[in-house]
Amino acid sequence: MKRYQKVYEMVKSLCIQQLEQTGKIKGVCAKEVAESLDIYRSNTSADLNRLVREGKLKKTTGKPVLYSVNMDDIDTVNVHKTSEKFNNALEQNIIDKIIGANDSLKTAVLQAKAAIMYPPMGLHTLLLGETGTGKSMFAEVMLKYAKQIGVFDDKAPFISFNCADYAHNPQLLISQLFGVKKGTYTGADRDRAGLVGKADGGILFLDEVHRLPPEGQEMLFYLIDKGLYRRLGEIDTAHKAQILIICATTENPESALLATFMRRIPMVIKLPPLRKRTFSERLQLIRAFFTAESGYLKTDIHVPANSIKALMLYDCPNNIGQLKSDIKLSCAKAFIHYISGKENNLYIRSEDLPEYVRNGLLHYKEYRDKLEKLKLDSEMIFGASEDKSEAYKTTDTFNIYEAIEEKRSLLKKKGLAEKDIDLILYLDIETAIKKYMSKLNEQNMEQLYKVVDKKVVEVARTFLAYASNKLGKNFSDRVLYGISMHVSSTLERIKAGKSILNPHTEEIKKSYPAEFSTATKMPELIKENFGIDVPQDEIGFITMFLIAEDYTKKKDSARVGVLVAMHGESTATSMVDVTAKLLGERHAVGYNMPLDKKPETCLEELTQLVTKIDEGKGVIILVDMGSLVFFGDIIHERTGIPIKTVEMVSTPMVLEASRKAAMMSSLDEVYDAVVNLSPYIGRLYSNSIDYSNGIKDDVIVTACFTGEGAALKMKGMAEEIIEKTGCKADIIPIDIASIEEYNRKISQIKQEKNIIAVISSVKPQDKTLTYFSPKDLIKGKFKSFVYSKQHDKNIELLDQMREVIRENANIDAEKYIDEFIAFYKNLKAHNINLNEDMLAGFVLHIACAIEKIQTGNFKHRTDYSQTDFLKKEYEEDFYIIKSALQSMAKSFDIKFPDEIYANLVKVIHFV
C-alpha cells in the first residue's frame, strides 16, 4: 500500500470514528493524520491535496483546514451497528486504561482505535518496538477493545504465534501456521488445521514476524490480499478466513525485510521503549506490578521510597518485561522473611533488589527534580484489592510463592534449622525466578535438560561430586554438560544394541591411574539408577572427561576443527551459540550462507575459514543441504586439508563433534561419532549398493573423500538428471579413505561394469574414464554430458539456454528448460520438427509469455481473427502444441490463451 493510500485509509477511519461518537463528520486536520501515521506533516499535506484533486476527499476553507471522505464511501449500516455499543463503552473504554494512553502511547492508542474500527473487521497492523515493550499485551488489548465495541464477537479467538520458535525449520513453521494436508510428508497421517484456521473470526498475532521465511511471507500476503490460504501440500483447495492480523517485530523499521511488510500492512504502530516513557508512567507500571504480586501473596506489600526510586532510575534494557521480572524477584526474596515470621509485614528491603537495580540510586541527583514532582511517600503500600491497570494484568499460571512454601515445609520435615532453611531458600530462589522468567535470561542447565534427560544430569552431578572429593579438584560446568551428554549418548547406544569400543582404554588406564580408578564409579551409578551394565571401555571415555580441562588448557594441543555451514541469515551461528553455551567453550565456528549469495563466493569464504581453523588434524564440516554438501571435497582438493562432511546437521551433532574435538579425538573418530548419532544418516548408509548383484551394465560412480553422505548426495543429484533423460545407467556411491583405495575400488567396478563417468573431487588414475568434479555436477556440465549421449544437438542448445532465460525472464530457468525439453520431445514425437532458429524463438517467446501472465501484464489481442484463422487452418498442429504445453502450464500454475498456441503455429508454418 502506497503512502497516499494509507493517508486516505486513515482519514476514512478517523471520520468513521467521529460519525460513531458524535453522529456527524467534521473532518480531520493534516497534523492529526500525520501523527496517527507517524509521517512528516509536509508529506501528509501533499497526499491530502492529491486526494482532494482526485475527488476522493473534501476539504474545508478557513483554518484549520479539515479533510473528510464522501459519505458514499462509508458503510453507514456497519457504522450504526457499532455506534450504540461504542457509546455504551465510552465510560469504561479498555484501551484508554492502558498506562500512557494519554501521554507516550497517545498516538499508538489512537492508531489502534482507528485500526479496530475500520469496517468490516479492522485494518491489519504492524507493531514495532524493542524487546519487552509490551507488543503482545497491546495486541491483546486491541482484541478486548474490539469485543467491547462490538467489532468482534465475545468469543472471538486471540491466537499468538512466535515465528522465531520455528525459524530454523521453515516447513514446520508453515505447517504450524497454515496447517498441513494429509500425506504431505512422513508423519502427516491426517489433514490438520493450522493457527490461521483457529484464528478465524478473531485476531492472529505473529510475534517476531521478520523471522517468517520467504515462502511463509508469500502465503501471509496472499491471506492479507485475498482472505484465502492453503495448507502445506495443497494446490487446488483454498480456505477462507476472516482474520485481523497483528504482527510484531523488534526489527529495524528501515530494514529491507520490514519494508516489505510495511508496504502490505496499512497500519504501523510504534511502541516506545521504557526509557522514553514518562516518569509518571514508569511509576504507574511499578504500582501495577507490585499490586499484581500482592494478589498472588494475598497480603499487602510495603515498599520504601528508596526502593521505588531505584526501580524508577535503573537502566532497564529489556524494558517493561524486565521491570516486571525484577519486581517479581524482589517480592520472592522478601516473601522468604515474611513467611519465616521474621517480619510482620512483607517488606521490600534494599538487599531484596538486584544490585543493578540498586545502582539506579546513583542517578538520583540527576533526576531529583522529576522525582520530587511525583511526591513519593516515605513508604508505599500495595494491596491486593487495588485496581490493576488492564494493560498489565498477568496471565502467569506458575505461582513462585507456593513453590517457596512447599520447599520450606519439606525442609522443616527434614529437621533443618530455621537459619539453614533461610539460607537454602535464598540460594535457590533466584535460580527458580530466572528459570520462570526464561524469556529474558535462559539458563544453560535449562537448555541442557532439553537435550538430556534430567535423571542423567543428576547422575553426572553425583559422580562429579564424588570425583571432586577423591581427586581434590573442582570441575567446571563444562565438564558436567559434556559428561551428561556423553552418558546420555552411551545409554542410547547400549539400548540400540550397539557396541562401545575404546582402543585406548589400557593406555588411558596406565597414563591416568587416579582418574581411571575414580571413573569406575560411573558404571556403578548407571547400574544403580538405570539398571544397565556398562562395558569396561566406557571407563576410558569417562576418564577423559576428568582430564579434559587439562587438555584444553594446553596451547600446543591440536584439535579437529568444527565448522557448521547452513543456509540462512543466522541459522549456523545460532546453532553454534547454543553449543557454546552448553559446553561452556566456543570451539565450533558457524558460517551462514544467505540464500541470495552466489555459491562461488561462499566457497571462497569457506575455504579461507577452513584454512584458518585447521590446527593440523583436519576439519569436520557439518552442513544442512544443497551445494554445501560438495564444498568439503572441493576445499580438500584446493588445500590438501583433511576434511569430512556430514549433512542434515542438528544441534546434538554439533555438540557431539565439539565434545569429541575437545577430547583430542582424531578426525575419523569425530566423524564416526557424529554419523552414529544420526539415525537418518545411519539409514542412509545402510542403503549402500552391492554392485555385484542386480546392477545395470552401464554405471556412474560417485566417490567422496569427505564422508559417504556427500557421495550419496551426488548420487541423488545425478539420478535426477538421468531419470529426465532416460539414460539407462545405475549410480554407485563409494566412500574412500585414500587415493589407493579410491583407484582400487574404481578398478574393481570397471572389471564388472561399463563406467560411463566418475564424479569425485579427485580424478581417477585411469585416464580412459570420463571425469566430473562436484562443481561440474552443480554447474550443469554433467547434465550436458548425459543429454549429449541421449539426445540430438537441439537438447544441448536448450541446456545452454538456461543462462539466457535467467538473464531475460523472471521465472525459474531450471524448471522452465526441463519442462521445455519435455515439450520439445512431445512435438518431435508428433513429427513437428524445429530447427535451431525456431527453437530459440519458441524458448524466448514462451518464457516471456509465462512471466507476463504471472505478473498480470499479458495483453490480449482485441482482434481475434488471425487466431481463429490459424486455429482452423492448422487445427491438428494447433491442438498438438496446446496439449504439449499443458504440463508446463500446470507446473507454473498458469493458463495459456489461444493466441500463444496460434503464434507458435505461425512460426512453424511461416505464416
From TrEMBL:
Protein name (Swiss-Prot/TrEMBL): PTS system transcriptional activator
Domain of life where this protein originates: Bacteria
Domain PRD positions: 451-556, 808-911
Keywords: ATP-binding, DNA-binding, Kinase, Nucleotide-binding, Transferase
Pfam family, one: EIIA-man
GO BP field: phosphoenolpyruvate-dependent sugar phosphotransferase system; regulation of DNA-templated transcription
Organism encoding this protein: Tepidanaerobacter acetatoxydans (strain DSM 21804 / JCM 16047 / Re1)
Alphabetized GO MF terms: ATP binding; DNA binding; kinase activity
InterPro entries with a match to the protein in the record: AAA+_ATPase, P-loop_NTPase, PRD, PRD_sf, PTS_EIIA_man-typ, PTS_EIIA_man-typ_sf, PTS_IIA_man, Sigma_54_int
Ranges of residues in domain Sigma-54 factor interaction: 98-332
GO cellular component: membrane
PTS EIIA type-4 domain segment(s): 559-689
